[in-house]
User: Fold CASP-like protein from Arachis hypogaea.
Amino acid sequence: MMEEVAGAFGSSASFALRLGQTVFSSASLLFMCFGVDFYSYTAFCYLVTVMGLVIPWSVTLLVVDAYSVFIKDLQIQQRIVMIIFLGDMVLSYLSLAAACSTASVADLLLEAGGSLCPARLCGRYQMSAAMAFLSWFLSSASCLFNFWLFSSL
Amino acid sequence: MMEEVAGAFGSSASFALRLGQTVFSSASLLFMCFGVDFYSYTAFCYLVTVMGLVIPWSVTLLVVDAYSVFIKDLQIQQRIVMIIFLGDMVLSYLSLAAACSTASVADLLLEAGGSLCPARLCGRYQMSAAMAFLSWFLSSASCLFNFWLFSSL
Assistant:
């Protein structure tokens, strides 16, 4: 029906991108959640909320891409590509915002030092922010590829 | 030579977008700079740096758009549109990152209260972050329109 855009919805590159997003966003959530009192800082609560949105979105599209790659090619419709593009765009902006907020608060706590941020906890905050950045990067790549596909339909 | 994309390079909507970017990024820089010791926080230094990149970029493209709208239509080349798209993309991500960092640090300082953040200063930090958000919004709109133009060339 149409030429395939590498990395856009339904291709195997897209499957890889979604897999990466799932892994990195889950890692970010886990680093932030376990053994950390994240609810005492707004920025960390925001990161947890955003990751709670990104993970189901990535997993859903991972499953759809897996179906399309391994079982049966899906018909690509313009409306669906637009929805996926918009979702990706919103979620990539949200995850960049969450990553930056977390990173800057972690940096401020690290400078303040002392009881606010023992080395063990601050390392976790930073890892969580790093994972959120990686997740953002893959998510914005997906967004661009889908936009390319959408504008070529 | 080709149909014009509203909001993309060389159109009058683009001129308006660039004007808004220039105004908001300058406002963000001014709120942060005057009478505030921004150099004591990494996030605020980062905002100042990013706005120092966004302002010349917006002003340059504002002038080019003004020339194209009021004086003489410019020939649109694919390579130039791609450069503008890439620049917009990078700068919009940077300004979103700066806005989020500033907002989260300002929020943390506001919670900490007391001598760290007198009401006058904190209000300025928040205004600066708000202006940076507006600048990001216009910048990402420009980026999308230019990408649309690029993919239709």
About this structure: Residues 116 and 153 of chain A are 53 Å apart (CA to CA). Residues 12-152 of chain A form one domain. Chain A has one domain: 12-152. Chain A is about 80% helix and 0% strand.
